[in-house]
Design a protein that fits this description.
By secondary structure, this protein is α/β, with parallel strands linked by helices. It is about 40% helix and about 10% strand. It contains 10 helices and 10 strands. The strands form 2 sheets. An 8-stranded parallel beta barrel has the order 1-2-3-4-5-6-7-10, surrounded by 4 helices. Helix 1 links the parallel strand 1 and strand 2. Helix 1 packs parallel to helix 2 and helix 3 packs across helix 4. It starts with about 35 loop residues before the first strand and ends with a helix. The mean pLDDT is about 90.
Length: about 400
């Protein structure tokens, strides 16, 4: 049997050791290229994809949506089928639209002192986070709520705790929660910038920020109409919140005068704030969508009314023009509007029916009141007559 050759042990070379390559840093999304981002609130009626197509056709490069009906508790229908969410994310990438802002349900009241409503609001906001994540949203805007009989300090503590509870077991990923300022109607929290700042300060371990609404600021008493007033307001935003924490600005003109404390949006340049003021806001270096003075990726979102077909397209065009960048604006589809003549007719009919229903209810209440009053008078007369007989 031949002798087997002796194999020399292989000498270890440190260079031969496997070293896994580090994961490359993810590239920033296309919307963080320093360009001005202008969007509008678009409708998801029919399909989530319809919202993307509407934004494109209206000449936007960003958008805001509701992830479900904003005036209904969703119950068991809170989730979005993955096939729909995936199609939405893919189409959004194709259209290069961003950022994507989701606005939370109007019924949510994170400040409520009523335990049942607070619990329901926490669950609904948790569902909002889940849906926003599924759609690949960048920001989720929520109103802080109304405090009822509670003090402002108590309400802010309740809001902070509600947000913490809602975000539990909800991986946030790249999603950021934004607290929106309010006009100050009734017992609403958030009319003062300091109140918004206090809420954010109470959430240091969560990705949070603020969304500022121009109509709300104006109605709450912040004079953003004048040049001096805008400068003063910017200083107050910086002091209470920090402009670097305001990635979304709702650009709405106001039907209400300065300090009116009522939330009523108007077409851009047609309200009490005016076109000149919006030009100042859109061109102000501190509100820019790029460094060094601005914030990369900041978006201006219109929530203006659509009274007639084409109002949505005209408001978007007005924002690009007032920013002085109409030449860089995405091309809008001529004649497109989210409000079609048929839809306008349907809305008008629904409003007439609702008004008729309210009028009928008021008439019924008036008749009942008159009947009660008559019966009270007759009863009083009978008592008086009986009293006289006894006397």
């Amino acid at each position: 049997m031949p002798e087997q050759p002796i194999i020399q042990p292989t000498q270890f070379d440190p260079e031969d050791e496997y070293r896994p390559e580090p994961e490359p840093e993810p590239l920033p999304p296309s919307w963080m290229d320093g360009s001005l981002r202008i969007g509008i609130h678009t409708s998801i009626v029919g399909s989530y994809l319809n919202a993307l197509e509407s934004a494109r056709k209206l000449g936007c490069n960003a958008l805001q949506i509701f992830s479900a009906s904003p005036r209904m508790w969703q119950g068991g229908s809170a989730r979005i089928p993955e096939v729909d969410a995936q199609a939405f994310r893919a189409r959004r990438d194709e259209l290069r639209l961003g950022p994507l802002v989701v606005h939370a349900n109007y019924l949510i009241n994170l400040a409520s002192e009523q335990r049942m409503l607070q619990t329901r609001s926490i669950q609904a906001f948790h569902d909002e986070i889940v849906r926003a994540m599924a759609l690949g949203a960048d920001f989720l805007v929520v109103h802080p709520g109304s405090r009822g009989e509670a003090t402002m300090g108590q309400a802010i503590s309740t809001i902070v705790e509600s947000v913490k509870q809602a975000s539990k077991r909800a991986p946030m990923g790249g999603l950021r929660i934004l607290i929106e300022n309010t006009a100050g109607m009734g017992t609403a929290v958030g009319a003062r910038l300091e109140e918004v700042g206090e809420i954010l300060a109470g959430l240091p371990n969560l990705p949070v920020g603020a969304c500022l609404d121009t109509a709300h600021l104006f109605a709450a008493g912040y004079d953003i109409k004048s040049e001096a007033g805008l400068a003063s307001t910017i200083g107050q935003i910086d002091g209470a919140i920090g402009l670097e924490n305001v990635p979304v600005i709702h650009v709405n003109d106001s039907k209400i005068p300065l300090g009116g404390r009522v939330d009523r949006h108007e077409h851009i340049g047609k309200g009490k704030i005016g076109a000149e003021a919006f030009a100042r806001i859109l061109r102000h270096p501190r509100f820019a969508s790029a460094a060094p003075e601005g914030l990369t990726g900041r978006v201006f979102v219109a929530e203006t009314p659509i009274d007639d077909p084409g109002d949505d397209r005209r408001n978007v065009a007005a924002l690009w023009e007032l920013a002085g960048l109409q030449e860089q604006a995405p091309e809008a589809e001529k004649g497109f509007s989210m409000l079609t003549p048929a839809l306008k007719k349907k809305i008008s009919e629904n409003r007439k029916m609702e008004k008729k229903r309210k009028d009928n209810a008021e008439t019924l209440r008036t008749r009942r009141f008159a009947g009660n009053k008559t019966r009270t008078k007759k009863s009083a007369a009978r008592k008086s007559k009986a009293k006289k007989k006894r006397g």
